[in-house]
Design goal:
By secondary structure, the chain is of the alpha/beta class. It has two domains: about 120 residues, 3-Layer(aba) Sandwich (Rossmann fold); about 130 residues, Hypothetical Protein Tm841, Chain: A,domain 3, CATH 3.30.1180.10.
């Protein structure tokens, strides 16, 4: 039975890969001075201008995707006779995944012969996108919807997400940081090391002094926790700090070269929450890795 793989724009997947692997994308909105925008083509996204605007004090806001929006995007695929696998952003940082669940329940009643499966990645950026890409690759090899879904749920538990930011204001303002009180922030050059926990929430796990040390700390998480790097694609996402992204990539290659390193720019919605200068690493460990 044919099935559509659907994700959202917070997955940060490059547009050429979306087209190559036939991955459908639901657009998230962001607002600049009240005007709504979407970013559906990463190749056209001017990250330097966008993050420069935020550095100058322009406030960007986002809103939760409604169940109706999910239903509007899913319905055409169901009408074409396709089942759906939705791979979404962490329910630990956004209520949008719950809205996808509400929409799916309603659509299952309207299309009882169709199957709709949802996977909460407990992540965002490439912590979501790499799963959507892997699912599409397995679909191309003939793996069924049920097989891919079961395997994805295991992979999500095995995915470690570590990142640092220049300014915690963005995460605090949107409520994305679960233990904000535990972090000093930027005082005296202290940089937080953050991660996605077992529930997909963003928590602080360490503090170091200075940017270089924060990049090393992320790389050391990889050294300690990665499993079978030669068989996986490791992800790096950055918010207008390409030199730091390359520094991290080189550290990763020296520690244990993975099969591939995919480096992307944080798209506007996730980028508005982590802020300019954010740098993140995504890789596979064991099933207990999120607790480390």
């Amino acid at each position: 039975m044919p099935y559509t793989i659907l994700t959202d724009t917070s997955a940060n997947l490059p547009t050429p890969l979306l087209r190559q692997y036939d991955i459908a994308v639901l657009p998230f909105q962001y607002f600049i001075e009240g005007e709504a925008h979407t970013c559906q083509d990463t190749e056209q996204f001017d990250d330097k201008a966008y993050y420069g605007m935020i550095r100058r004090g322009v406030r960007v806001t986002t809103s939760q995707i409604t169940p109706q929006t999910y239903a509007d995007v899913m319905t055409p695929f169901l009408e074409q006779g396709n089942d759906i696998l939705f791979i979404g952003m962490s329910s630990g940082i956004s209520g949008s995944f719950h809205c996808a669940e509400i929409a799916s329940e309603e659509l299952r009643e309207q299309y009882p012969r169709r199957v709709i499966r949802l996977v909460d990645t407990k992540g965002a950026s490439l912590g979501e996108g790499l799963h959507a890409l892997w699912a599409a690759q397995q679909r191309a090899k003939g793996m069924s919807l049920e097989q891919v879904t079961d395997a994805l749920e295991k992979r999500c538990r095995e995915t470690y997400q570590s990142f640092t930011v220049d300014d915690l204001m963005h995460l605090r303002r949107s409520g994305r940081l679960s233990n904000a009180a535990a972090v000093i922030g930027t005082v005296l050059g202290i940089k937080p090391i953050l991660k996605g926990d077992e529930e997909g929430r963003i928590v602080a796990c360490a503090k170091v002094r200075g940017r270089k040390q924060s990049i090393r700390a992320i790389a050391e998480k990889y050294r300690t926790l990665v499993r079978h790097p030669e068989a996986q694609t490791v992800g790096i996402a950055h918010a207008d700090c390409p030199e730091d992204a390359e520094t991290l990539a080189e550290m990763i290659r020296q520690i244990a070269p993975p099969k591939e390193i995919m480096t992307v720019k944080y798209e506007p919605v996730t980028g508005s929450h982590v802020g300019p200068g954010a740098l993140a690493l995504f890789f596979l460990g064991d099933e207990q890795v999120r607790g480390c």
